Amino acid sequence: GEVGLAFGLVNMFVTDEGHIYGKDFGKYQFALAEHVRTGNARYSRNKKNNPGRKKYYAQKQRLEAALHTYVNGEINRLLETEKPGQIYIPKLPRSSRAGVNKTYNHAVSMWQKGYVKGRLTQKCRERSIGLTEVWGKNISIECSQCEATGKKVKDVFFCEICGLELPERVNTARNVLKRGIVNRN
Asked: Using one digit for the tens of pLDDT, what is the confidence trace for 74-90?
């Protein structure tokens, strides 16, 4: 069948049926982002006395390699478990540096969504699985049942019109699937 996916910074993928792939993605992503953030700050403070960044880069490469290995494993698990013929994903917006929390902002700006999307694209191509991007504007606040605008509170989507209450990422994935099917026809 057809699968709608919602991307996330904490959980890598959530399907339209609520299956989660990459539950530890956020841990890997935040560890890498925190290493870069603190390493840059430390380097800037001690730039004159610092002989080089070899140790910093070695640790960064280890963290990136662990993240990339995890991403590839979870994409393989997704494709083997769901056995899709067609996958729909939202067109992702650019990263924004706006916000309040510096640690979270840095993690978002370093979000490896390009790598994740690239690996998903490659693995779908290798397995002859269709991969289609759908228009993503307001996809997370639209009710997947009645198409009204709903509210998100602490990762839960609620529609006041029809009463639908779902995890926000499941609602988003269902909207991705709906938009993909509509665009296909």
From this structure: 999 999 999 999 999 99
Both structure tokens of 31: 């560890």
Q: Confirm if 60 and 69 have CB atoms less than 8 A apart.
A: no
Euclidean distance between CA atoms 4 and 142, whole angstroms: 15
**DSSP state letter for 85:** S
pLDDT > 80? residue 125: yes
| Contact (CB, 8 A) for 167 and 18 | yes
d(CA 126, CA 120): 10
User: Pick from 115, 131, 132: which is nearest to 74 by CA?
Assistant: 115
Confidence (pTM): 0.83
In this structure, how many other beta carbons lie within 10 angstroms of the beta carbon of residue 146?
Answer: 12
Distance CA 162, CA 139 (A): 17
